[in-house]
Amino acid sequence: xxxxxxxxxxxxxxxxxVTWIGGMIYNMFxxxxxxxxxxxxxxxxxxxxxxxRYSPLTWGSLAVLIVTGIYAVSGNVxxxxxxxxxxxxxxxxxxxxxxxxxVVILLYQIYTLSPQMKKIITPATPKDQENALEMARAGNxxxxxxxxxxxxxxxxxxxxxxxxxxxE
Length: 168
Description:
mainly alpha
């Protein structure tokens, strides 16, 4: 029974990671380039709507990753402790630091960048050159953090594979 639970938990962990990171890859390499011909304000507005629709899946994936990650760690405590005494413990520590960075970036994007973008995109905002410059700056900042989010996420997946190998 323990093996079945471990397999289900591991599968859910991988599915949640693929959902989260896959969504970022799809958005960055398919959706965003497809929207570029619409112009900056429209493209950002549509991208924000799409992100809002995807958000419950992102939060659900994060919850699944946390629960299944705790379960996986609890089943391998002997191979991970002392944390810095074993290679697997070091990899886990680095992975958890990057997961923390990923969550911080996500929260920054949602609670800081997104409201800034919404304010700029609002139809009541005058359509002048200053607004266009502000939109370009905010878009560049959002793109930088999105790329960083994706790179950190891919690094976490690589570390997860290394950790799985070390724990076998």
